[in-house]
Amino acid sequence: MTAIELPREISVVNIGLPLFADAIRAQGRPVAQVEWRIPAEGDTDAIAALRRTYGTRTAAIDKANAEVVRRLDEGVPQLMGIEAAASVLPDIDDRTVLHSGPPIAWSDICDPLRRSIRAAVMAEGWATTPDEATALVEMGSVRLEPANHHDTVVPMASAIGPSAPVFIVDNAAGGTRAYAPINQGPGQVAWFGMETPAAVERLVFLRQVAGPLLARAIAGSGPIDIFSLVAQGVQMGDDVHMRTQATNNLLIRHLLPQLMSLGGTDAQALAKFLAGNHLFFLNIAMAGAKTLTLWAEQVDGSSVVTSMARNGTTFGIRLAGSQSHEWFTTASPPIGRALYQSGFGPDDAAPDIGDSAVLELVGLGGPAAAASPAVAGFLGGSMSDAIAATEDMERICAGRSTRFKLPILGFRGTPVGVDVRKVVETGITPRINTGILHASAGTGQIGAGVAEAPVACFREALLALSNRPPAG
Amino acid sequence: MTAIELPREISVVNIGLPLFADAIRAQGRPVAQVEWRIPAEGDTDAIAALRRTYGTRTAAIDKANAEVVRRLDEGVPQLMGIEAAASVLPDIDDRTVLHSGPPIAWSDICDPLRRSIRAAVMAEGWATTPDEATALVEMGSVRLEPANHHDTVVPMASAIGPSAPVFIVDNAAGGTRAYAPINQGPGQVAWFGMETPAAVERLVFLRQVAGPLLARAIAGSGPIDIFSLVAQGVQMGDDVHMRTQATNNLLIRHLLPQLMSLGGTDAQALAKFLAGNHLFFLNIAMAGAKTLTLWAEQVDGSSVVTSMARNGTTFGIRLAGSQSHEWFTTASPPIGRALYQSGFGPDDAAPDIGDSAVLELVGLGGPAAAASPAVAGFLGGSMSDAIAATEDMERICAGRSTRFKLPILGFRGTPVGVDVRKVVETGITPRINTGILHASAGTGQIGAGVAEAPVACFREALLALSNRPPAG
């Protein structure tokens, strides 16, 4: 009888759960661990939908996605000017108030957004107290609409009335135009869910002072290539969502000749406002991004997300090819990795809110985390934490930016074009860099952090796509 | 007879020349290479000087160096205002022109600096043509002095007359005050070695327009903490020598309320000048650094460099404890790793010039290369090239900045305090991020790059230190 000879050298490739690999490593033998998880966490409906959107349809969807990524990456948004919302926005009347996120009934709106809507109503002069404003809304005298349905994006708990000044941004290549209000700055402000007299006064200041003066400055400068400034800002530590400081200052330097020629006491007030507002550029970048998603959403048969917005109650997405206002929504998530101001914590925090996640669709914010030492501070403190956030986004995106480059990653482009197939398959959802508001006290911003989008709405979008007949 | 059994497994540690290690590696055997070179390249005088400044004197010199590093790291330079040089600089008369670098006779001055001196003479109104200016200098009617001898630092081929406006910077902790002229900006400018009417006109503009208006703006703002802005700028991609864009824009945003209240056509000219000058902050940072080296050089018995400056002909350093104007000089080096504007190359380039290397003494410029994607572009293109430049500086510095942090290196501080012992021992000299001027044509800047300081002057400084009686 011959003894069976066991091999002396054992090398192992382990696929899936790492426990087995760890055990082999503990015995001093080489082992290669292959990351693998059951797709879609074993959700059979989702796996079936993945089968239908890969396989024979892979090529068609990938082709549509490539065109979507091209539009998101190549469009050149230009800041053209500032006008009152009523005079430029499509399909609004003189009693419309636009809010962040997907459509929602007043009864379901969260506390910070309610306060902001009331502040907008008071700034319009329709009511003088929050209670009067509530009454007007409840009797239907104010029409509430998602800003996104009017080619407009508004950050955090913003709400804007017809007289609010809005930035006008054009993407000439795609023939699309989008809008965003002027960022309200720090302090007692409605976009942070406040309705104090100071918050209302800030809205009036934007309409009466900042809007007209900035309109003159922009007219004097001529159209401004927004993403040229953004691309420089990404080299200077901005993710251009949570942090826009560098891009902001580039804009101020660009406009310096026009700003220094304004003159008068109003210009003094504007100067103070601009010098103290680190997020002034945020809304301009958002409007720029929206011109690109408006162009991209005209492509049929793509699995790439072209709207992503939150109203503090629901989190919603839309896919390219769904210009019908078809939202896939689920509950707004909490903001997981966060830094809070002293005295506040997760129990005080409102859920994720605002249209600013449009930035994450074009390669900014979460995808650009690795550009930003400041954002790294919210993600664990080291640049490797920020790199991990960017790399998560790479795993669920269809392409790469050719203009937003990450120095720390060998100047490779930020990931662009969130593919619902990849989101559902991996269970990784977009990382959104964002602020945090108080859930109920009306005291404004209490922190900032990184939200992970909920997977449920991506799953719904994938199921709907998989059941649609193939495009074209 | 027993055969000698050779070992079957060979592992090698190789010290010194890597050729032997490469040969072993080529045969597939493991080898650890230890970097080691003969100290000071075997220069016996230098090795003797190293013996005298280490050994029994190590503790005393290290203690002095720690105090020097503390002063370079902890001083808080504040921008106080702007005045005419003659009214504030120590020991200058109404015919003094200050130039960059160590002392030098007119006959030895390089072409770009000669042109700049003539431009300063014309801007003062003492001459109307370059030839007249030359004649005045040659007959001794103009007194040429190194700016460094008057607590002043001037970048590139700058020269300033008594009427030139200078920034006044105070370091309250050290009781030191330093000065720098207003940066002249891009284009036809004397600090790039030009003497055209436009270059002279720019100097007059600085005196008549920019100086008085900026003085008003700074007075309105109150003292400005220069290195607080610089610390932010380092997080935003500035090395604050070759690139000062982010820090610049932070200053502009800080001064925005004052700038927007100036009014008038002069303010328009200033706005255009500021909006187009990426290096406006350079000179302010230099004056800030100079307040710290003036404080540090009061420490006796240190081996740390407290002056480093070039006049385009000679490169000179001074050590802490040598307030006697004792320079150690050698020929100015070429700028090795460089990018040239189209049509120019190394043959057209003037040697390294300017007082801006004061920045490399306080943890900026070369030591901060790893902060700057833009600087990386001059060093090979990748961030690892920039990291290598910073790491070279770490090998020759006595300490670390506690305020200038490098995100890409785990937020560790930039190296501070160039130790001549380490320079001579390793043969690594400071890396200086700098611009490049045309050597003879008077056509201004033709490129930018990184100069390696020549080792000879560090060797001389070490020999002098080693022959001095120990301090204290």
Reconstruct the topology from this structure:
The structure is a homodimer of 472-residue chains.
Chain A: E1 12-15, H1 19-26, E2 31-34, H2 44-53, H3 58-74, E3 77-84, H4 85-88, E4 96-99, H5 111-123, H6 130-138, E5 143-146, E6 159-160, E7 165-171, E8 176-181, H7 197-221, E9 224-225, H8 226-234, H9 245-259, H10 265-275, H11 280-296, E10 305-311, E11 314-319, E12 328-331, E13 337-340, E14 353-354, H12 373-376, H13 383-396, E15 397-406, E16 412-418, H14 420-426, E17 431-437, E18 445-452, H15 455-467
Parallel strand pairs in A: 1-2, 4-5
Antiparallel strand pairs in A: 3-7, 3-9, 4-6, 7-8, 10-11, 10-14, 11-12, 13-18, 15-16, 17-18
Would you mind describing this structure in some detail?
Two copies of one chain form a homodimer. Chain A has helices at residues 19-26, 44-53, 58-74, 85-88, 111-123, 130-138, 197-221, 226-234, 245-259, 265-275, 280-296, 373-376, 383-396, 420-426, 455-467, and strands at residues 12-15, 31-34, 77-84, 96-99, 143-146, 159-160, 165-171, 176-181, 224-225, 305-311, 314-319, 328-331, 337-340, 353-354, 397-406, 412-418, 431-437, 445-452. With 472 residues, chain A is an alpha+beta fold. In chain A, the strands form six sheets. The first copy, chain A, has a four-stranded antiparallel beta sheet. A four-stranded antiparallel beta sheet of chain A has the order 12-11-10-14, with helices on both faces. In chain A, helix 2 packs across helix 15 (455-467) and helix 8 (226-234) packs across helix 9 (245-259). The longest helix of chain A has 25 residues, at 197-221. The termini of chain A are far apart.
